[in-house]
Design a protein that fits this description.
The complex is a heterodimer of chains A (about 180) and B (about 170). Helix content of chain A is about 45%, strand content about 15%. Chain A has about 180 residues and is an alpha+beta fold. In chain A, helix 2 packs across helix 3. Chain B is of the alpha+beta class and about 170 residues long. Classes of the chains: A alpha+beta (about 180), B alpha+beta (about 170). The interface between A and B is large, with 36 and 40 residues.
């Protein structure tokens, strides 16, 4: 079982330079003799380095935020609709007691935010929800035909902003569907 | 303490659910039927008429930038009202029928009308010995869409006598 040093709780504050002189000396003295805490301190500093290396995002224009909001709203709608089963959440446990856990949680949130920004943000690589073919004015949830000789497809145009649902008529027995002998 | 927390959580969930639920509301559905065709320049100049009928002038810029056709003829406009959960059946030219069934109104965001749209063709099949046709409908297209309140979606593709049928479907709740 891992031995827990009393000094360990001060390591994050020590790494951030937030300790008083007296406490800092006490920690330094302890670090000289405790390899466990020295390793822990290295880990905290390594973590801080990673956080500091996260690049700062360029300034974002209003229309870019509007587009981000729109795409995020569509994606949330889609996810909400897909969630057909109720999920029992595990009992939440507070993470703010331990400074290291708090740092890990903050890093996790940062990572998710950065990923979301990169994926669907104003400069995002994803243009919209993959499962739908709608623009802003219309989202196509499902599409089908029950007749032989027709193939329905949905398209979205950005300029002008319009969703088009097109039924392609195929040739059946030498006649274009819809103008064939069966039609009126 | 746990009871208070549970009560608060339940209230919060109830508020969120009720705010996202659709409200009973009437919907006005409008369909403009258009025949799109690609005609030769000679034929256009012979007819002397405009390539786009005046009734659909508002739609013309969109149609012309979206499709490669150069002639758009107005065939008709039908408008009807229904309620969420109900359905409306719109008779279109050349025995086409559009059935629209608004299912719910999404209040959040820009406001959308979720609806089931079915395009049918009323055909008659000869019944042996009967000597007259039996009414029958063929489902050409069935789609579920979430249309922005007051927005328009274009449906089209089936060939008709004057070209290709294009429908501009709008709904306002």
């Amino acid at each position: 079982m891992k031995r827990v040093c009393r000094i360990e709780r001060y390591l994050t504050a020590y790494a951030d330079g937030e300790l008083s002189v007296r406490l800092r000396r006490k920690v330094e003295k302890h670090l000289a003799s405790c390899r466990e805490c020295a390793r822990e301190l290295d880990s905290i500093r390594g973590f801080d380095r990673i956080l500091n290396e996260v690049p700062t995002a360029p300034p974002v224009k209003d229309e870019q935020w509007a587009r981000f909001d729109r795409i995020l709203s569509q994606e949330l709608d889609r996810v909400e609709r897909k969630a057909s089963r109720p999920v029992r959440l595990r009992e939440a446990r507070p993470v703010y007691g331990d400074p290291r856990r708090r740092a890990l949680a903050a890093a996790g949130v940062c990572a998710v935010a950065v990923f979301a920004f990169v994926a669907i943000g104003p400069f995002g690589i994803m243009n919209g929800p993959a499962g739908s073919s709608g623009g802003n004015s219309c989202i196509v949830e499902s599409l089908e035909t029950l007749s032989v000789g027709y193939t329905p497809m949905a398209f979205t145009s950005n300029d002008p902003e319009m969703t088009i649902i097109w039924v392609f008529a195929e040739e059946v027995d030498g006649n274009i569907r819809g103008n064939g002998p069966g039609a009126m | 303490m746990r009871i208070v927390a549970k009560t608060l959580l339940t209230s919060l969930i109830a508020i969120l659910v009720s705010s996202s639920l659709s409200l009973a509301k009437d919907v006005t559905v409008e369909v403009t039927s258009i025949a799109a065709a690609a005609v030769s320049a000679e034929a256009l100049s012979r007819s002397g008429g405009p390539a786009v009928d005046s009734e659909i002038e508002a739609l013309a810029p969109k149609l012309q930038s979206l499709f490669a056709y150069n002639s758009y003829s107005f065939l008709g406009l039908v408008r009807s009202e229904t309620e969420f959960g109900g359905s409306v059946r719109l008779e279109l030219p050349e025995h086409f029928v559009l059935e629209v069934r608004p299912e719910r109104f999404e209040k959040e965001g820009i406001g959308r009308i979720e609806m089931m749209v079915t395009l049918l063709k009323d055909i008659r099949t000869e019944v042996a010995g009967a000597g007259r046709g039996q009414p029958r409908e063929e489902i050409i297209l069935r789609t579920k869409i979430r249309l922005e309140n007051g927005g328009t979606v274009l449906l089209g593709g089936p060939p008709i006598s004057g070209g290709i049928l294009v429908l501009a479907l709008s709904a306002r709740g």
